[in-house]
Amino acid sequence: QVQLVESGGGSVQAGGSLRLSCVAFGYTYCNQRLSWYRQAPGKEREFVSGIHYDGNAEYADFVKGRFAISQDNIKSTLYLQMNSLKPEDTAMYYCKSESCTVWGQGTQVTVSS
After folding, report:
1. φ, ψ for residue 41, nearest 5 deg
2. Distances from the Cα of 94 to the Cα of 22, 39, 77, 108, 113, angstroms
3. Of 19, 69, 100, 112, which is most buried by a Cβ count within 10 Å?
4. Residue 31 has what pLDDT?
């Protein structure tokens, strides 16, 4: 199995930036496809961005041009660089191993106007 541990959340003003990290402990097979999701209070969890082991990435329309996903396969770490943050980006952000269907515990991002 694999354990995912997120970090890097915090509080920023609109227009600011944050970089989230997710370290994967366990089977490297579970790193084949990793994703970021988010869930705001009272809303459903939604897909933000995902990346394959070969580097191919995809993004939800609402973050295209603002967020960038990347991974360091040697460090088994997934990143999400978030720029031009908006108040509507406020949510708990979760890392997920799509290959092994495992979730991290989440890291809170709060953007104030």
Report:
1. -55, 130
2. 9, 8, 14, 9, 23
3. 69
4. 79
Instruction: Note whether 84 and 97 are within 8 A (CB).
Output: no
DSSP 43: S
Q: How many other CB atoms are found less than 10 A from the CB of residue 105?
A: 11
Answer whether 58's CB lies under 8 Å from 49's CB: yes
Structural contact between residues 33 and 51, judged by C-beta atoms closer than 8 angstroms:
yes
Place of tokens 């970090």: 7
d(CA 62, CA 54): 24
Provide the residue-wise pLDDT of the chain in tens; the chain has 113 residues: 789 999 999 999 999 999 999 999 887 777 789 999 999 999 999 999 999 988 899 999 999 999 999 998 888 899 999 999 999 999 999 999 998 899 999 999 999 99
Asked if 95 contacts 22 with a C-beta cutoff of 8 angstroms, the reply is: yes
